[in-house]
């Protein structure tokens, strides 16, 4: 159960299709499904790292307005689903079974330095750090060059390969819409493993793996499993 698995299945925000996303029960549900790793999003606020995705509160909590307009105590008092609070990153890692990977996405502004500092105390974790904010990801890489990174792309950019090379990335994370046999092959030739998001159909997942994708993110790790995908790994 790690980023070294032959096919990598990553629980997206835990198991977002099964439990409230980015909550401790969601991560537990993913782990119970024997995922290779879990994915989560972090904001740095008041010296703490909060696990949360949106820049506003209303979709996933009983709060309103921008997340950055609230204090950490106010945020922790909210219901993030099922009566669960917004967790701190250390609360998630404290429950990680040994060997389970964790993909930390730098979501909020100014997350590079706090995440690098956090990682200094958790060197035994199998971590991959990613972001759509490639400048922030570059700052993280400069601070913690030993931690693997992966630039995220929702739309294809001609500069994608150069961005990955500049980060000394081992992975490149692509949306379903831009993943193709050709791009996956090009990534492999450049020494990059590809992780595709967010894949909730088993037939599509098998096709992506047959094209050579290294793994994928899913909201439903109970049905899209490493066992279900193993037969699709190309020789």
Question: What's the gist of this structure?
Answer:
It is built from 9 helices and 9 strands.
List keywords for this structure.
TIM Barrel, alpha/beta, 8-stranded parallel β-barrel, globular, 29% helix, 235 residues
How would a crystallographer describe the biggest sheet? 8 strands, parallel, barrel
Task: Return Rg in Å.
Answer: 17 Å
Name the shape in a single word. globular
CATH superfamily membership: Phosphatidylinositol (PI) phosphodiesterase
Rounded mean pLDDT score: 95
* H-E string: EHEEHHEHEHEHEHEHEH
CATH class: Alpha Beta
Q: How much beta, percentage-wise?
A: 15-25%
CATH fold-type name: TIM Barrel
Q: Which percent range fits the helix content? A: 25-40%
Total beta-strand segments: 9
Helix/strand class: alpha/beta
Number of domains: 1
Number of helices: 9
**CATH architecture heading:** Alpha-Beta Barrel
Biggest β-sheet: strands ordered side by side in the sheet:
1-2-4-5-6-7-8-9
Distance between the termini: 21 Å
